[in-house]
């Protein structure tokens, strides 16, 4: 059981690492093509309208893939004012409940996936790709998140993970966002 | 029963007023059995999202340009092909013709979206204009423009073919973009010049007659089929009334609108701008596409046939 | 109206018991869909999340965040703030004043407060923390001062209002200048008063050599904000492109300082992409909630529920301010305006409130909503950007809402604050 969890967890971590590399790369490409476009416009007076559309598309992809990464890394904004002060059994119940709510939300995102993709088979105006490529990364992330929440809930139940641990917010700053 | 109508415009525009009439008359003719709730100003989404909601039955009506159906039938974008039609009648005949109606049929099969009533009967605006920061006197000036267009490859191609640089921006960004010199021109139906205030930053206006515009009442076909015959009839009659109001207000009001715009301080307006050079280059553009097999088969013949029957 | 309570109630409950904010917003919306019998319309979930994340105006966010991260990494941020402090001298709370002025100067860059929080925000919070300010105060001040941006022109927010109210955009832009300065001044006054009661960090007095060093050192770093502002004001670039230019320039300066390495660049890219994803997903989830409110006409129900009882101009303005702060907590400013203005404008006209003044009132009120706990989207963003716990930030922001609120009251009571400048430049509005 434990080893199954750890294999699953390691796989999800690997996917998250891959997504993280992908979104960093997307941001780098967004930066590069826009820098090129600005240079081209100011030097030879030629700008490429496609740059805007590709930037937008990659921005959507990065957002959608990123949601799995930040949830997996527990970086979402969480108010644990109450939860973190509870005794362990209640923290376990709240932790599992939060995971179930996560699964519910992801179910709502995923349930219309087929219908929505069916409506978006036409191609985009300025990029020769089907419209649904906009939302595919969202569905991909949502699938991974279902696995993440389910695993997290199981690990909370078996005691592998302690839900709502005490944490120092300043420590988070130093290793996290603003560095 | 309540139908939901998503509108892109504000309730006090001509279009918005016509939708109110549709709602009032529908309630009246159906004796209150069918009511229409209007969501103005794209409250429940931009058109691309709205057509999906329409197809899925979340809403029942979304009046706008039929080109928003292009994802189900590519060719439908030629319903607003720039500089392809002589005048409103010519264009109306083309829309009512077998070719466009066939495209719409395909859309209905694929998406469950149909068009209520006769689209050309409900004009969106009288004619299209070009607003620019610097005055435009000849077709050569067009080549100097950085012009805003909406996200349509056909429209972009046509304007780039004129030598202009095209920047795609949403309607909401245009004013600021002109103000900051990111673009220096924008095209607009006459009726929107006053409400958008684009003339404050691009005060030189010429009439171009780029393409005629009408409102197609895109509708969830299944919802319509589920209505009682009485309610279907009420809806169709209300659509005819709203169309009549739009027709009357748009075409008889155009002269007054022009006068009001001319009277604005610092604004120049010309309806004698010579578009023949633009028409000539665009006609070469379409001919080249036809030769390359890039136009829908039979399009140019259908355009020609519509021209004949409009006479 | 009940639907509104169901959605907001479930959201708050879920958030308070530890459900992550993105999920709680989504789940609150699910509860609302269930309540309204709209579960068949789940389609709007993925659709509106994508729509919320694909607004051109927000495309600047990842680049501003990246620019901020890069500027920190190459040490440019310190140089900019050293420069500012050299000019300000050993005034107490000097950096807090700099924070206010920075938001005012950068107000021209983006019309979106969220972009200011995401980009400028992390630089400001970090600089203040290193100078001995409390983490919570630094974060809260940064959220509060970001409200200046959309009031001072150029502002998409004001353009949207101008269309809805059929007013001149140029007039509204002019009208925003004095109120923008007033809000900034109210923050400065607040900080000054606070210095009397609280021990605020004071910089060591510097001698002339040190000042000269700070200024000379700061010049290459200061070129970055100048490029950004210049590029935007002179139409060389959009806000998004200005963010790109800032990134590229910072990288060039970084190479010059020998502070750029591949691993530093890669870390900055990863962190920036992740943070912008978090911000955009919160916005995307809120968009879904906004869709449900629009679809079920919740704001209209709130407004009409009270409008009947209103019989004076003063009462109307108080009502509008309260309503919009509340609505601003859980809806983006633009859809909130689109939905409510058709309802409020005729009443404003009837009570003789000038439409330009009214525009300023509702723009500022909706902005204050962004920073109002427990549901202001700006607070979630800052919590994600700075790592300050949401609940601590919520408490720290409360006193800082006083200055913009006082400014809002002044703007509501004295039409001249808004109308003086446009009337002076463009002449009085036609009746
Ligand atoms: Na600030
Ligand atoms: Na601004």
UniProtKB/TrEMBL annotation, chain A:
Topology versus the membrane: Multi-pass membrane protein
Q: Name one GO molecular function term.
A: transmembrane transporter activity
- Alphabetical GO biological process terms: C4-dicarboxylate transport
Query: Pfam families attached here?
Result: DctQ (PF04290)
Pinpoint the Tripartite ATP-independent periplasmic transporters DctQ component domain residues. 30-157
Enumerate the subcellular locations listed in this protein's record, separating them with semicolons: Cell inner membrane
A single GO CC term for this protein reads: plasma membrane
Domain of life per record: Bacteria
Q: Does the keyword Metal-binding apply?
A: no
Question: Per the UniProt record, which residue ranges are transmembrane?
Answer: 12-39, 51-71, 92-111, 131-151
Ordered alphabetically, the record's keywords are: Cell inner membrane, Cell membrane, Membrane, Transmembrane, Transmembrane helix, Transport
- Tell me the InterPro entries matching this sequence: DctQ, TRAP_DctQ
The record describes its quaternary structure and partners as:
The complex comprises the extracytoplasmic solute receptor protein and the two transmembrane proteins.
The record's comment on protein family reads: Belongs to the TRAP transporter small permease family.
- Protein role: Part of the tripartite ATP-independent periplasmic (TRAP) transport system.
Q: Please state what the protein is called.
A: TRAP transporter small permease protein
TrEMBL record, chain C:
Q: Where in the cell is it found?
A: Cell inner membrane
Q: Which residues cross the membrane?
A: 6-36, 57-76, 96-118, 139-164, 170-193, 214-236, 242-260, 272-294, 314-331, 359-381, 393-421
Q: Specify the protein's topology with respect to the membrane.
A: Multi-pass membrane protein
Keywords for this protein: Cell inner membrane, Cell membrane, Membrane, Transmembrane, Transmembrane helix, Transport
InterPro entries hit by this protein: DctM, TRAP_DctM
Q: Which GO terms describe its molecular function?
A: transmembrane transporter activity
Q: Which domain of life is it from?
A: Bacteria
* One CC-aspect GO term: plasma membrane
Q: Where is the TRAP C4-dicarboxylate transport system permease DctM subunit domain?
A: 8-417
Q: Does the keyword Membrane apply?
A: yes
PANTHER family the UniProt entry points to? SIALIC ACID TRAP TRANSPORTER PERMEASE PROTEIN SIAT-RELATED, TRAP TRANSPORTER LARGE PERMEASE PROTEIN
What is this protein's name? TRAP transporter large permease protein
| The organism of origin for this protein | Pacificibacter maritimus
